[in-house]
Amino acid sequence: MDSHDVQADLKHVLYTKEQIQQRIAELAAQIDKDYEGRELLIVGVLKGAVMVMADLARALHSHVSMDWMAVSSYGSGTQSSGVVRILKDLDTDLMGKDVLIVEDIIDSGLTLSWLKTNLESRGTASVEICTAFRKPDAAKVELDVKYVGYDLPNEFVVGYGLDYAEKYRNLEFVGTLAPHVYE
Ligand code: XMP
Ligand code: MG
């Protein structure tokens, strides 16, 4: 879907399709370089990371394996608590692997902080993080994120994998919703 399809629901477009694709290509070039000669496993966090996984994987010029996890963060409403439950675990044994976790967005950082520690405990050679978006003003833990697409203001956003009540994931851009949508 493009911005015309959801015009009445939108407040602002924050990053366009072109800007997102440009930044993903830059991140992919950096990842190709950083992992040259190594075997990389990219791990997507369902469901939000589907778009960034698909675009990032295709922008790489190296072979990668792909696997998926689904996690749910306990907490009230939209606030993440840092207590995470695995809904779907990886199919891959991580022993000795170089792993890159791929996320749609880092908000408090609590989910990713937990996930990184969890994967590291499985005997990985390395675990790094790549996220399409990050809200620096929302950070609650210090988290070393090696690859960041774009930093966002501390507002709820949708599109490019991110949903409001399971809608808007299939927007090709990222934006904020008009208040009438959620009020
Ligand atoms: P934490 O706070 O642990 O949470 O970094 C990250 C997860 O929270 C969700 N999230 C959002 N989802 N629009 C969304 O659609 C947003 O603006 C937003 N901020 C956080 C998302 O699931 C992410 O993985
Ligand atoms: Mg997510």
TrEMBL record:
Pfam families named among the record's database cross-references: Pribosyltran
Location in the cell: Cytoplasm
Cofactor(s) this protein requires: Mg(2+)
GO cellular component: cytosol
EC number, as in UniProt: 2.4.2.8
Keywords: Cytoplasm, Glycosyltransferase, Magnesium, Metal-binding, Nucleotide-binding, Purine salvage, Transferase
Signal peptide: none
Listed GO MF terms: guanine phosphoribosyltransferase activity; hypoxanthine phosphoribosyltransferase activity; magnesium ion binding; nucleotide binding
Pathway(s): Purine metabolism; GMP biosynthesis via salvage pathway; GMP from guanine: step 1/1; Purine metabolism; IMP biosynthesis via salvage pathway; IMP from hypoxanthine: step 1/1
Segments forming domain Phosphoribosyltransferase: 17-164
Superkingdom: Bacteria
InterPro entries in alphabetical order: HGPRT, Hxn_phspho_trans, PRTase-like, PRTase_dom
Biological processes per GO annotation: GMP salvage; guanine salvage; hypoxanthine metabolic process; IMP salvage; purine ribonucleoside salvage
CDD domains: PRTases_typeI
Keyword Magnesium (UniProt): yes
Entry keyword annotation includes Protein biosynthesis: no
Broad class of where this protein is predominantly found: cytoplasm
Catalysed reactions listed for this entry: IMP + diphosphate = hypoxanthine + 5-phospho-alpha-D-ribose 1-diphosphate; GMP + diphosphate = guanine + 5-phospho-alpha-D-ribose 1-diphosphate
Alphabetized NCBIfam families for the sequence: HGPRTase
Assigned protein family: Belongs to the purine/pyrimidine phosphoribosyltransferase family.
Record protein name field: Hypoxanthine phosphoribosyltransferase
